[in-house]
Every structure is written in structure tokens, then in C-alpha cells.
Amino acid sequence: MKYRTLGRGLEVSAIGIGCMPMVHGGNITYGNDANPDSAIRTIHRAIDLGVTFFDTAEIYGPFQNEELLGEAIKDRRHNLVIATKFGFRFDGTRISGVDSTPQNIRSACEGSLRRLGIDCIDLFYQHRVDPQVPIEDVVGTMADLVNEGKVRHLGLSEAGADTLRRAHEVHPITALQSEYSIWERGVEEDILPLCRELGIGFVPYSPLGRGFLTGQISSRDDLPQDDWRRNDPRWSEENFAANLEIVEVIRSVAERNDASLAQVALVWLLAQGDQVVPIPGVKRIATLEDSVQAAELDLPLEQIDQISAAVPRGAAKGPRYGEAGMRMVRL
After folding, report:
1. Is 60 a catalytic residue?
2. CATH numbers and ranges of domains, the chain
3. pLDDT tens digit string along 241-273?
4. Is the full-model pTM beyond 0.85?
5. CA–CA separation, 220 and 173 (whole Å)
6. How many Cβ atoms are within 10 Å of 132's Cβ, its own excluded?
7. Nearest CA to 71 among 32, 36, 33, 122?
8. Residue of 60, 125, 180, 205 marked active site
């Protein structure tokens, strides 16, 4: 495994692991439910392969994903970088809105520490910007948690450029997590340049287009009826076929290099900057092993450029979220 450095000297594996798919009967399901025992074995295999960066959130499940990761890293915590996120209000297990008030940040932190079974969160993200709470107040509370030894590094997720700059003035931000992939390149306009300017690491989530870019799904009929992606505009009946053209661009490069489509999509992201660390979601060992091999795959620069030219910004058909989801990003 190769390693990269996010902001503030935080070293992580060049490929991290998104733990979100590792839920059983949770609120966000991709494909079939994860088997908890299999998911834990997958995390252990990731550690054996040199992966040090694991991403979760209280919203995944909700709560059960942190508990599963906590169980998996028990007695294996050394050298791992555990990232989790806060920023929502819950009515029991139902999400009832965003909430980044100081009291909710503190409550979320304590809950995450307990579920993960750790005494310090390595990277604590605000999951979504709360328009009702100034970012200066949010980061101020997060900084207090750093001073108290409960958090090591601060991050934001899906924040806009102005919000990120204001946050960084209160306390250095180590990483920004936002959606970024071959078919979702909106961050290239102002977000990525700002991260480079401020020395902030960038963590792409959904680097494989929620599985679309792997070439493993050829029809919406391949998705279970309760699959979250059935609500994704890019997976809709009117957009699915057109977006398969993007998959064929990736496939042409993969075949020339005896690589999987997932590996090509991840290498393309790694080529976008040394501070870029994608976190593909996995729940099975086979998927994990395929994805982490991307860290060792070298593609000729001309092939990276070929993909970029063939799939320019805005090439994908449909927005990346439905209307409600789009209202929560780049704030």
C-alpha cells in the first residue's frame, strides 16, 4: 500500500475504505444487505493489506455502522485513522433534519466515541453544512473538542468554497470530503483549487459513481427494489442508458491495461493531486482487494487525459442527487 498526506500532516493509505455499505437493514442500502461477520472480515483484510483510513458516520444505519467498525477495530486500533461525521438531528432512528448546534456536536461526538470504542476521533467531519448555524460557531465547537483531546483533526463534507475558507480561518481544516469521480467533476472549478491553496486534503466519496462506473450493473433491473440508487437521477430510466457511454470510456482504458474498471476510475482520481484520497465503499473482501490494487496501478498520463477529455465536466446525464439532496450540498 502507498500512503498520502492530507492536511496538517495526517498520513493515510492512498485508498481509504468507505464503510457505509456495511449495514444490515439500514437506512441506505446498496444491493443486498451486508452480512456483519463478512463485513468485519473485510475490514480485517483491509488492515492486513495496509489500509489505515476508514470512514463512517452516525447517520449510516443510523448508528449501527459505527458500532460495526468499532467491533472490527477492537484490538487493532494502532496506526488506524478513523473518520466519522456529525450534523443531523434524530427522532429515535429517524433523521429529522440537519443540526450543527454546539450541544448536538458534543452529543454526536460522545455517541460516536462510545459506538466506535475509541477515546479520540482521528478526523471529525461536519456531514452537511447547517444554514442556521454560522460555520465559525461550528468549527469553534469542533476546535474545543480538539483541545479536550476527543478529536485530532477537523473536516467538512460538501461545503462550498466560501464556507471552507471561513472555517479554515477559525481552525485549520485537515480534509474536505465531497463527491468526486469521473462522472462528477464539479469540485474542479473552485473547491479543489482552494484545497490546494490552503493545504487541505480532499477525500472523494462515491468515487465509483455508487457502483455505476464499475461496469458491473447493466440495467436498473439489476438493483433490488429497496436499493437507494433507484432514487438517484443518474440511475433513472431516462438517464441510465446515456450514462453507460461513460462506462464504455473507462472500459476501453481498463482493457488496455488488464485492469478492472473500478481500478481505472480510482487511478484517475489519484492522478488529480497528491492530496486526493478516494474512499470507495465496500462490504466484501473481493471488492476490497480489487479496489486497493489501484494504489499500485500506473496508467500513462495520456490515458488519464483521454478519460478527462472524453468525459468532461457535466457529461453525466442527471443531477447527482434528487432535489432535496442537492439543496444540502456546496453551501
Report:
1. yes
2. 3-210+265-297 (3.20.20.100)
3. 999 999 999 999 999 999 999 999 999 999 999
4. yes
5. 39
6. 10
7. 36
8. 60
